[in-house]
Structure formats: C-alpha cells, structure tokens
Design goal:
Layout: H1 2-23, H2 32-54, H3 70-90, H4 92-106, H5 111-132
Helix pairs in contact: 1-2, 3-4, 4-5
Length: 143
Amino acid sequence: MKKLDLVLSGILIMIGGLVYIMISQLPKEASIYPIFVTSIFLILSITLLIKTYFNKEEDSKSTGFKDIQLGQLLFILISSGIYILLMNLIGYVVSTILYVFTILFFLKVGKKRSTLISFGFCIFVYILFKILLKVPLPEGIII
C-alpha cells in the first residue's frame, strides 16, 4: 500500500502541474478559481506524499476500503452512469435529487435524512451556481 500511495501521489502532483500549465493559457480573470482549486489539489497531493513517505506502519495495517462491498461499488458506478445520462434528459435539479437520494438510501442512511440531504445539497448548488455565479445548469424536459 505504501508503494501504491507514493506512486499515486507522484501521479497526482504531475497532473496538478499539467493543470497549472493549462491554466496559464487562460485570461487572468478566468484563472483565479482554477488556480485556487489546483493549489488545494497540489497541497493535498504533497501532503499524501509526505505522510506516506514518513509513515512507519506496515502495509497490512492501512486498509482504507476494507468494509466496502463489491455490490455497493457496482451500484454506485451504475447509478453514476445513469445520473449522467438523465441529467441532460430531465435536467440537473431533478436528476441530482434522485441520484443523491438513491445513493444515500442504498447506503442505508434513512428516508428522512436522505431526503433532507438530497434536497439541501441540490438547493445549495443551485443557489451557488445558477443564482450567485450565474452559471447555466443542464436543463431537461422537467426543469
């Protein structure tokens, strides 16, 4: 696991560097947010590299995804593919509410909590992007 984390952090740092090169081609006004996000990405990647390099524990103790079942992973992957397809058909708002609710309910979060989280997340993203940042969201037949 330690070797895998070292390789992964190296690849992530290289990807961050390539993104910085691509961002440099953007106009100054348009590059502020991508630089912010890429900086956080690089800081986290470097943190992973340093933490992995100085970690003295053996590989057998660090199993992060020990409790994840194959069925759960497949369900989430298939649901994500369906979500991407539905987003352009029925719109961002409805498809996101359905997607988040389905994933949370499948992971046994509970109906009430799944409903609150899915609606809350969708409203938050809608207000942030559509109203404040004036970024168009995918619209479909319904919304």
